[in-house]
Specification:
It is a single chain. With 587 residues, the chain is mainly beta. It folds into five domains: 2-130, no CATH class; 139-301, Jelly Rolls (Sandwich); 311-414, Immunoglobulin-like (Sandwich), CATH 2.60.40.380; 423-522, Immunoglobulin-like (Sandwich), CATH 2.60.40.10; 525-587. The chain contains three helices and 43 strands. The strands form eight sheets. It has an 18-stranded antiparallel sheet that branches. The radius of gyration is 42 Å and the shape is elongated. The two termini are 75 Å apart.
Length: 587
């Protein structure tokens, strides 16, 4: 999509141009099926007011209209062959909202049914015209070789060429303010002139050169020399009804692109000329003093908006910091373009926020994505371990126009290493031991977390599983420090017991599990526990101390249905097994 601006003597006219069906589809997708535009307006002491006819006025404190925006209209490229008039037009709904002192927003919404009608002929143009301000021609004049000391700055016409074989030669000069073009990515530009007279209906060229500025005192004798030719047009209008008077446009895209890069002056002049020996080049145009003054039209591509702060696809937040577990992490951001153009993002990862070449350690470039869509890539080379890093994104549209500013920094940390396993200690009950004397209270155990190679890789929590629990019995926070931590309690009931521990880093890397087992007192049934349910299968396990010189134990398993007549009735006996034995209850 393009934004075309026509400079007028009393203001400017803007055209929003949707060039292709694909551009329309992208805009519709970005707006969730609704195509509309928001145009910010600086009101400078005025208040925006919507009118019944669809226009918007800007009024002062006394209610006097200072300027207005006419009711907009949309049309497509279909033109009647005989009249030259547009045949497909549609009103555009315009609303206005005052957004605080000195600011308002116009919202333009075309008829969605008309917009997506398969009969549309592209490009489609939406025309909101703002009728205040002055960015048109600011000065024009012509000079005559037959009257070398005369001035013509108040004339209503401009002249080029000769009508008497070179006896009298005319050249015209026009001055335009160019600050409106400053910094723009100009796509196309034209000088628009109203030609009301030519020597004949035989088309002959006239030329556009740059020149130094002129004043009301400029004459043939004092005229500035031409600098460079930037455009020409072969035309003839105004001689007769066969070549009726009307506007002509001279392409000056290269000149407007040059003006857009100027920062040292605010106005620039052009010279119009034609053959100075051939009468067929003779032409007249209306000047600034007429109702058909000259102006410049230009279409430009607006810069994409600044990207959102990047995010990490596998990032995990701990204590307000984001950690990633892999050196090939994916970075993602979104960016929008005011013209609905596709955008490409470049991500840079640095080890500080100076943004210098020396601090950059990795980067990547995304594919082009629709305006507002997520774009991702994997920085290369891979990120270093145990580092605090900073990532940012820059945006470029499909005409290679950069926003010019980076997104906000996103800070993240890398923790790429698997931590060493912790150890567990239950004083008085070393791993593999069995005590004949049962403790009088639950047994307290501790877990020791070793120091990691780098602060980011230091575990932040320990998961503790007591007596074969499938979910953590307790989770101990280490505050990302090494050391010994308590809080583990083993129940005092007789039988075998176990404590399994596993540590995890902020980026979710987990250590190996470590288990210590011990027991005391008599044999104990470990599983199933009270209240366990099953769809038809139970696993029974028990722990007991080997007797005498035995190196292991065996067990006989008995079971019964609930509701038996007595404690000794209805028992079923399973086969003795040296290891856990799966039993199917009787039906």
């Amino acid at each position: 999509m393009d934004l075309s601006v026509d400079a007028r003597r009393t203001g400017f006219e803007t055209h929003l141009v949707i060039n292709t069906p694909a551009a329309l589809a992208a805009m519709s997708a970005a707006g969730s099926g609704q195509v509309s535009w928001q145009i910010p307006v600086k009101t400078k002491g005025l208040t925006a007011r919507a009118n019944a006819d669809g226009s918007v006025s800007f009024v002062d404190g006394a209610g006097t209209v200072a300027s207005s925006v006419a009711a907009p209209v949309a049309w497509d490229a279909a033109v009647d062959a005989r009249s030259g008039n547009r045949v497909n037009e549609s009103p555009v709904r315009m609303t206005v909202a005052q957004r605080g002192k000195g600011r308002a927003v116009l919202t333009l919404t075309p008829d969605q049914g008309w917009l997506v009608d398969p009969a549309r002929v592209f490009p489609i143009t939406i025309d909101p015209t703002y009728a205040s301000g002055s960015i048109g021609t600011t000065f024009d004049t012509y000079v005559s070789s037959a009257y070398p000391t005369s001035t013509y700055s108040t004339a209503t016409e401009l002249r080029v060429g000769t009508y008497n074989g070179g006896g009298d030669v005319y050249r015209s000069f026009l001055t335009f303010p160019i600050t409106a073009l400053r910094g723009l990515d100009v796509v196309s530009a034209n000088v628009s002139l109203y030609e009301f007279y030519s020597w004949s209906c035989t088309a002959y060229p006239f030329y556009v050169h740059t020149a130094n500025g002129t004043t009301s005192a400029t004459t043939w004798n004092t005229q500035p020399a031409p600098i460079a030719q930037w455009g020409s047009l072969t035309t003839a209008r105004g001689y007769s009804s066969s070549c009726a008077e009307g506007r002509v446009s001279v392409p000056i895209t290269g000149l407007a692109q040059t003006w857009s890069k100027v920062t040292t002056y605010n106005d620039s002049a052009i010279r119009l000329s034609a053959s100075e020996t051939d009468n067929y080049g003779w032409k007249k145009f209306y000047s600034l003093e007429s109702s058909q003054d000259p102006y410049v039209t230009y279409t430009y591509n607006r810069r994409p908006n600044i990207a959102a702060a990047p995010t990490m696809s596998n990032g995990v937040t701990y204590n307000g910091s984001t950690y990633v577990a892999y050196g090939s992490t994916t970075v993602t951001s979104t960016a929008t373009d005011p013209d609905g153009s596709t955008v490409q993002q470049t991500f840079e990862v640095h080890n500080d926020t100076t943004g210098s070449a020396a601090s950059k350690i990795s980067s990547c470039v995304t594919s082009f994505a629709a305006s507002g869509a997520r774009a991702s890539c994997n920085p290369s080379p891979s990120l270093p371990d145990n580092a605090t890093l900073y990532v940012r994104s820059a945006v470029m549209d499909d005409r290679n126009l950069w926003n010019g500013n980076w997104s906000p920094w996103t800070t993240f940390k890398t923790a790429l290493s698997k931590p060493a396993a912790p150890s567990v200690s239950c004083p008085g009950y070393p791993n593999g031991s069995w005590s004949t004397t049962s403790p009088t209270s639950d047994v307290a155990c501790t877990v020791t977390v070793p120091a990691a190679s780098g602060a980011n890789n230091q575990p932040v929590r320990v998961y503790v599983y007591v007596d074969g629990a499938t979910t953590p019995t307790i989770v101990i926070s280490t505050n990302q420090t090494a050391g010994t931590f308590g809080g583990i309690s083993v129940p005092k009931r007789d039988g075998g017991h176990s404590v399994t521990v596993m540590s995890a880093t902020a980026s979710t890397w987990s250590s190996d599990k470590v288990t210590t087992s011990f027991g005391w007192g008599n044999t104990s049934l470990n599983t199933p526990t009270a209240g366990t349910t099953s769809t038809g299968m139970f696993t029974a396990s028990a722990t007991a101390k080997p007797q005498g010189n035995a190196t292991g134990v065996s067990a006989t398993v008995q079971w019964r249905k609930s509701g038996a007549a007595s404690d000794t009735a209805d028992w079923s006996t399973g086969t003795a097994a040296p290891s856990p034995h799966r039993l199917t209850p009787a039906s």
